[in-house]
Every structure is written in structure tokens, then in C-alpha cells.
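A favour, since you know our C-alpha cells better than I do. What I am after is a single protein written out in full by you. Could you add the entry underneath, on a fresh line?


***
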Amino acid sequence: MNLFRGNNYMYYPFILFSYLLLSAICYAESLPINVALSLTPLSSPLIIAQEKGYFIEQKLQVKFNKVIGGNRAANQLNQGNVDMATSSEAVVMFNSFKNSNFCLLSTFVSSNNDVKILTLKKNGINTLDDLSDKRIGTILGASAHFFIDYTMKAYGANTENMTIINVNPEDTYKALLNNEVDVVVSWEPYIYLAIKQLGDKALIIKHEKLYNETFNLLANRSWAEKNQQQVIAFLKALDKAISFITANPKLSQKIVSTYLNKDLAIIEDSWDDLNFSLSLHQWLFYLLEAEADWAIKGNFVQSKIKPDYLKLFMIEPLQKIKPEAVTIISKQIN
């Protein structure tokens, strides 16, 4: 039957409405999700999902805004430049004192050996005890900042006379060579790259691996609430990427090294320290609380009131695809 002949003009409003509705759906699916991606092996699930086409399988267009460090990625989110970002939980904690319009959707990797302590042999620094009165170069407001203070205090070392100096991760070896600091605390792959530049001059300070860093998927809360299906699809793509990583570690390393434009040896060096898995665990809540207490006590934040970290989590999307991965207690007991 030809709807455009005779008296069938009565169908025009219906046809036009259907066309506009279909166009709107297609347009919504084609809108890109802008993600601030920290250029680190920690971001491997997102890299694999992009390179293997898992986002496209979920009918998502994902564009990466590439930055160095989760603190810079979170800044992009705070400034409204992106819809999502990747960062450590320490960055989440620091940003929670400044911005309430973001949420944490999932942890996708954790590591107890991503952040390391590097010095020069000539400095005569061999143990954590030797750091008590030294100049420590690290990334203020990031996981490395919390790590060094937490590690020193857990070890029982005095931190009162330590001087903390901000050093960007890409400037790790330069800060040591130029005698701007005595020690640098940073994450991979920048410690590896610094050691490669410094050669036999470099020394890693050994420590108990007490701090378990997490890397997490953050989102603008208003955007996430309006785009729940896209958020769920994004997490499904990450979950498939993690399954690929687990089944194909060597190939995954090659894909990540190519994407990051880093030598394969750099990625291989720290790969075994990375535990990839989607989760929202109760211990992350406690870690954020502990970090917030530390930040307030150390006057690293202006407010003396801790944010409500239970409200920070948006658990529904992950619950729908991996309910067993969510152990956050919905109501905390004081």
C-alpha cells in the first residue's frame, strides 16, 4: 500500500513523528562520550576497549582527551571539558572537597606497586628512615602524595622535617639531576623512564607495599544521571576489555605500548603489578575516608568537614552488569 496516495495523507503526522523519533535515537547514540584519559598503563582497559572496538560494539562513540596524570584528568572533568575521566582514589578524595557534581562509577584496576620512591645513590639515602629530613618531590594532590606520607607514618618514621615539593611526573629524573629534590615519589611508567635516563646513578628505596592504589572511572554526575544506558554500555565494554586482558596479556601489552607510544619493555616491567577488575568495594569507601582524614589533618584541603563518600558512588550501573562486584554498604553504621 502506498501511504502517499489518495486519502492516506492522514498518516503523515505518524510517519513524521516516527522519523523524528528514530532520528533522535540515532543522533543520541552517535553523540560522542568525551573521556579525559590518563596516559598510564593503569588506563589499559579503556585503551583496549577503544582499540578492539568494544565501545563501537556497544554503539558508543568515545573520544579520549589524553593527559598525563589522573589529577589533570579530574581537572578536565571539573572544568566541564569531558563527560568522564580516569584517576586514582586519592585524586577523587582531593576533588571531593572542591566539587560535588561528579560521581565514581567503578574501580577498574588496583596496584600496590605502581608508586615508587626513587633517589640517586650519591645522596646516601637507603631506607625510609633516611627520608625524615629530606626534600621529597611528588605530585601534590595525587596518589603519590598520600602514598609517601602514609608509608612513612606506617613505617614509624618521622615526617615533621620532610619538605614536600611539587614535581610533575614527566619531570622526575630532571628534578633529581638538577638537585631540586633529594627523592622523587611518582608512578609508572615515569619511574621506569627516569631509571633509564639515570642508569647506575638511580636507586629505588624499598618499602612494605601497604598502600593499594586504585584507578577509577569518574563521570559528571548530571551527565551520568541523564545517560544511564550509555554508562552501562561503557562499563560493559570495559568488562569485555578486562576479559581480553586476562586471556591475552602479551597482546594487551603490545596494544597498550603502541597506544601510549612507549617501549614494550616499559609496559612489561609493571604489568604484573596491575590487577584489572571492575568493582565498587567497601574497602574503597574506607580508604577514601582515611585519605580525607589525612588531608584535613595535614591542612592539604581548606575544609575541615569530610564529604559524604557514600553519596559519591553511583552504584546502579555496575550493579546491573556485575552485581557481585558491588560490596558498598548502602547505609554506613557509625
